[in-house]
Design brief:
This protein is of the alpha/beta class. Helices cover about 30% and strands about 20% of the residues.
Length: about 250
C-alpha cells in the first residue's frame, strides 16, 4: 500500500494524548495534518483510502469520553486505514480501545493497528508523572515503524481482531467532582473558552451536571486558578494509588 500522508485526529483535554499522537506521527515519517477535536466546536472531515488516519483519545473510566465519541463520529473514512490509540493513567483502559474501534469502523475506516499508551494521570498527576518516559518513547517509535512496514508490505488492508474489551461496554459512572475557580481567578475567560462541553458559566464556576472532569480548564489556566476540592482529590488519590502502584506497560495490536 502507498501512503500519501497522515491525518491525525485526537481528543486531548490536558495534552497527554496530543503528545503521544505527535510522537507516533513523527515516527511514521510521512506528511501529517492534525485535527484537534477537543474544543467546544463542530467538527467534520473526510479522508481517502490512501491516507493513514491516526485517531487517539484518553480513557475516561475505561471508556471513550462521550464528547470525543460524538465528534469522531463526524469524521468519515473511505476504506481508510486507521491506527487507533488510547492513553491512560496507569490504571486500566478497559473497553476504551474496543469502543474506539467500533466508532471508527462504523465511519468507514479499517482499523489495521492499535496501541494503549500509559501517560500521566490527568486528575492525580503524581501517578505516572514521568510517562511517557524514555522507554515508552522508544516503544512508540518502534510501534510506528512496525505498523508502517505492515502497511507498505500489504496489498489489502484488513482489520485486526485482537483488541481487548467487552462487546457490552462497561458503565461509566462519571466523576463526583468538578474543578472550580480559586481566589487567584482573574476572570480571563480562557477556561470557559476551552471547556470541551461548555460547562463553565459566566461566574467561571463549573456546572457539575455538565462537567466531565477532563481537567482541561485546570491545564489551560495561566494563573493556576482552578482546582478540585482538596478533600475530594485526597479520596480519589488514596483509591487510585492502591490500584496504580505497579507500572503498567504499553501494548501494540497489529
Amino acid at each position: 500500500m502507498k501512503i500519501n500522508g497522515v491525518k491525525a485526529i485526537y481528543f486531548s483535554a490536558t495534552g497527554n494524548t496530543k503528545s503521544v499522537i505527535e510522537l507516533f506521527c513523527k515516527a511514521f515519517d510521512e506528511p501529517a495534518e492534525y485535527l484537534d477535536v477537543t474544543d467546544n466546536e463542530e467538527y467534520g472531515c473526510e479522508t481517502d483510502k490512501n491516507t493513514l488516519a491516526v485517531i487517539g483519545v484518553p480513557s475516561f473510566g475505561g471508556r471513550v469520553p462521550a464528547i470525543a465519541a460524538e465528534r469522531i463520529k463526524n469524521i468519515r473514512g473511505n476504506n481508510t486505514p486507521a491506527f487507533i490509540l488510547t492513553t491512560y493513567g496507569n490504571r486500566a483502559y478497559d473497553d476504551t480501545l474496543n469502543e474506539l474501534r467500533s466508532i471508527v469502523e462504523s465511519n468507514g475506516f479499517v482499523v489495521a493497528g492499535a496501541a494503549s499508551i500509559v501517560s500521566r494521570h490527568s486528575i492525580v498527576t503524581d501517578i505516572a508523572a514521568d510517562r511517557p518516559d524514555s522507554k515508552d518513547i522508544k516503544e512508540i517509535k518502534d510501534y510506528a515503524k512496525e505498523f508502517k512496514n505492515k502497511l507498505l508490505n500489504s496489498h489489502n488492508i484488513n482489520g485486526i481482531e485482537n483488541i481487548p474489551g467487552n462487546e457490552k461496554f462497561r458503565d461509566f459512572g462519571g466523576v463526583p467532582f468538578s474543578p472550580q475557580p480559586t481566589k487567584q481567578c482573574v476572570s480571563c475567560g480562557i477556561c470557559a473558552e476551552k471547556c470541551p462541553v461548555g460547562a463553565i458559566g459566566k461566574d467561571y464556576k463549573a456546572d457539575s451536571e455538565k462537567c466531565i472532569a477532563c481537567m482541561r480548564c485546570v491545564s489551560v489556566c495561566p494563573n493556576g486558578a482552578r482546582a478540585v476540592s482538596k478533600l475530594a482529590l485526597k479520596m480519589v488519590s488514596l483509591k487510585l494509588h492502591k490500584v496504580c502502584a505497579d507500572r503498567k506497560e504499553n501494548e501494540l495490536f497489529i
